């Protein structure tokens, strides 16, 4: 046991020594480290496996070392909505998920939110998606809560939310262990379910069932990061069809060029914040 603990400490230190993973929530590194040590008896192999898993979780999507202080300064000096949208549009191009969605920003969020803008929004596995707030037509009283695993990203989003015209918070949270204990009118879970299912089979479905929001907006990529069509739309449609049938949900489906979006109305009252 003591040897396992010291191996885990060594693994965590080795992962955090890498600039790429230094800003990832320590609890996530510890969880991934424990799982790697269970699978690989050699510490060296476990460290390599932990880094590979973390790379799959975040590394493959975003440009390296994003200049958050500079981005905040750019947002701060944007004098009006048009300039703010231009800045956000440019910044979102630094993350593969938001980059692919840029041509659809104008029509996506009105379609997801229905006739009434939500008062409380959860954005789970947010990446840079909160930078799309200027396209969401949210009133300034909206509470926007964003979660991901990277502390630097969360800090940036936390500071950016008031500049984007809403109130809110951004924090780290390991969604493979469940949603944050926060209720909302709508939860955005964009392109994050496949990563959670990769981390633990069933983690994506468990998350969707546990979220405290009557409306879920859940999306899946339909092309690989390299842009290839490898049958992902069929796979994820099957995944959501099975889950929706089991849960009695009737999703409305929106097809974007690279993304399949399921809007699920659960008719369950959102519970107050715990
Ligand atoms: C494919 S990106 C999607 C980003 C954003 N939702 C979008 O669609 O633009 C997946 C995001 O999920 C985050 N993520 C991966 N595993 C996670 C976990 N266990 N808990 C919380 N976030 C996670 C990654 O850091 C990444 O930002």
Automatic annotation (TrEMBL):
Keyword Methyltransferase on entry: yes
InterPro entries on file: rRNA_MeTrfase, rRNA_MeTrfase_GmN_bac, SAM-dependent_MTases_sf
Keyword DNA repair among UniProt keywords: no
Residues noted as binding S-adenosyl-L-methionine in the record, renumbered to the chain: 95-101, 125, 148, 174-175, 190, 199
Alphabetically ordered keywords of this record: Antibiotic resistance, Methyltransferase, rRNA processing, S-adenosyl-L-methionine, Transferase
Catalytic activity: guanosine(1405) in 16S rRNA + S-adenosyl-L-methionine = N(7)-methylguanosine(1405) in 16S rRNA + S-adenosyl-L-homocysteine
SUPFAM superfamilies on file: S-adenosyl-L-methionine-dependent methyltransferases
Enzyme nomenclature, EC number: 2.1.1.179
GO BP: response to antibiotic
Residues in the signal sequence: none
GO MF entries: rRNA methyltransferase activity
Family of this protein: Belongs to the methyltransferase superfamily. Aminoglycoside resistance family.
This protein's name: 16S rRNA (guanine(1405)-N(7))-methyltransferase
């Amino acid at each position: 046991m003591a040897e396992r603990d010291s191996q885990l400490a060594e693994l965590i230190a080795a992962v955090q020594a890498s600039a790429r993973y230094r800003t990832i929530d320590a609890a996530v590194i510890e969880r991934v480290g424990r799982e790697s040590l269970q699978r690989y008896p050699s510490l060296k192999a476990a460290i390599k496996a932990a880094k590979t898993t973390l790379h799959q979780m975040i590394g493959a999507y975003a440009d390296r070392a994003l200049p958050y202080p500079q981005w905040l300064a750019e947002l701060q000096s944007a004098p009006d909505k048009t300039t703010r949208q231009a800045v956000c549009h440019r910044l979102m191009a630094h993350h593969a998920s938001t980059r692919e969605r840029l041509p659809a920003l104008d029509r996506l969020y009105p379609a997801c939110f229905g006739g009434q803008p939500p008062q409380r929004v959860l954005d789970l596995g947010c990446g840079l998606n909160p930078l799309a707030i200027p396209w969401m037509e949210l009133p300034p009283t909206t509470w926007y809560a964003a979660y991901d695993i990277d502390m630097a990203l969360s800090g940036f989003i936390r500071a950016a939310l008031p500049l984007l015209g809403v109130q809110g918070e951004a924090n780290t949270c390991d969604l493979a262990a469940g949603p944050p204990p926060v209720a909302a009118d709508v939860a955005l879970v964009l392109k994050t379910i496949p990563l959670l299912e990769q981390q633990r089979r069933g983690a994506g479905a468990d998350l969707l069932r546990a979220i405290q929001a009557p409306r879920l907006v859940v999306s899946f990529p339909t092309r690989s990061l390299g842009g290839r069509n490898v049958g992902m739309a069929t796979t994820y449609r099957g995944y959501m069809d099975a889950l929706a049938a089991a849960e009695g949900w009737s999703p409305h489906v929106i097809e974007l060029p690279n993304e399949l979006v399921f809007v699920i109305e659960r008719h369950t009252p959102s519970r107050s914040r715990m």
